[in-house]
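Notebook entry, structure prediction.
Reason for the run: the old model in the group folder had no record of what sequence produced it. Starting over properly, with the input documented here first.
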Amino acid sequence: MLFDMTENRRSAIDILLKAAGYLDCAVKHVLPQLPSEHRRDLPVDLAEGVLRALCLQALGQGVDIQLGLAIDSTKATLAVKRRLACEMVKYWQQAQDNITNLPLANGWGEKHRFYVKWKYIEAKAAAYYYHGLILDEGNTEKSHGMAVSALQAADEYLKESKRACEAFNAAVPISRTPPLWGTMKYLSEKIPKDTSSKVRINQDLYTYEKIMETAPTLPDFALALKPDEYQLPDVDSSWNLENVNKGQTGNNKD
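New structure, fully documented this time:
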């Protein structure tokens, strides 16, 4: 059963990479061929920023599944989990950057914006958690202090992600709060538990702003997942300009 679940998750990653490939092809090879006036007439759902955001979202969700596989693996190190979590932050941040200035005030567009923000905050909670655990392995007072700050940040981001989830579900069209699953089901239990066990301070003295101000900088890792390469198929002969003109001539004769 565990083998089947692992294979299903790997298959899901493959599907997400294919989806990212289609979207990447649309941005790089389809949109540039459209005349500028036609591009301006496209609905906002097909704007370049939205397509790029969806591509990055697919990659971010793929890394999320990879992190889940690493969590379930006894061989995956903390360093591997931290790298995956930090990569996930970058994917979701880039997705958010691509739709920040788009006019997505109504309908699904605004809900999409809330979704990306929610997942971006979740990713930061995971990244700071694993970064904190690694820092805590250091033998110096400084490394322990940085670990405490990272774990506090992870806990705050976890709380913030729950509020972001509520905002997403409240946005029209209204949706139900989904049950926790995958990496966040695990981390929603581990982050508060490990933070409270390692952070032995008066929490009332630390505001959200203070915690975020003292949080260490996350490591910067190169992004490993890339969209699958997709090439548009050859144009069907029925779209040949000569054939189209012949068809139009024949219709005129009638």
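Summary: Residues 2-221 form a domain with the Serine Threonine Protein Phosphatase 5, Tetratricopeptide repeat fold (CATH 1.25.40.280).
The old model has been moved to the deprecated folder.
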